[in-house]
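note to self: dont lose this again. the chain is below, predicted strucutre after it. 351 aa total, dont forget to put it in the shared folder this time
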Amino acid sequence: MTSREARPLIADASADGTPAVVGTIARTAEERGVSRLTVPELARDPFVMLAGIAGQTSRLELATGVAIAFARTPMTLAYEAWTLSEVSEGRAVIGLGSQVKPHIERRFAMTWDRPAARMREFVLATRAIWSAWQDGTRLNFRGDFYQHTLMPPMFSPPLLPSGPPPLLLAGVGPLMTRTAGAVADGFLTHPFGSPSYLRERVLPGALEARAESEAAGEPWTTRPFEVSAGVLVATGRTDEEIASAIEATKARIAFYASTPTYRGVLEHHGWGDLHEELHQLSVTNGWDKMPALITDEQLHTYAVVGEPDTVARELIARYGGWADRVTINDTRAESLDVAFDVIAAVADQAG
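---
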């Protein structure tokens, strides 16, 4: 794997819920010293949610995790991200992902075609739009998927004192992973992935592509390339809380493992047959039977389990040295306060 400068590991929080709930979480996160809060695009628009949070916080970085790129055009994404950066005074972090073909075509009624090539162009088009706004360059982006050639002064927003926000790209397959390294400011790993799978099968492609962009002198490579790993965590302060978290985490592992996209994550550890069994249950609506098929060995391979100090030590051991940040993917309201304990413990132990 291409070498990169090691930095102390930082742990981030994620949150989902009503605007009132997420606002409370954001204020608490800032009070507890959390540096970044990620809001996913599930049943609500993350840009709207984060814009509401911006006025309730002053230091917390506000990240989309992830916004669905192909549900938008580069221009609509450019405006959303620019506005969020403006209202948050430079605290926006834009995480993008592709979603999967059925959602793009059947839920969003948008086009799915060569997703890695389309994503590369999407990011480059967004950068071209931002350059027109920030640097005054003439907008003249002409690609295979997107063309942006009109930007009258009336429609150009004010300059951002901090500059355009960072663009981080999520990826699972090798083509999208390389795209992240080639054109993004950072790479977001999926929470369903063991550290060895990520280090050996996923990250090398991103770092090789990043090195090629640096050698070519691409202007965005002046920013350090960030690697942020999504992690599944089952934690609590009591045995009962940890047991409940384990149950929820096994259900989530079973859901991911039933999806053909993630079969390689299982095959890396010799568990390819588990995908077939889980997939059959998923198509016959046997969701309630699926968590029982996840063994303790599989749980501990794909998730970090224990009380907060133990989880913090394990996160540093697993991800320190090759990831810059980890995002704790447990948005249940009853467990967020314990997640903040984990984040604080990572900060203490990572130094």
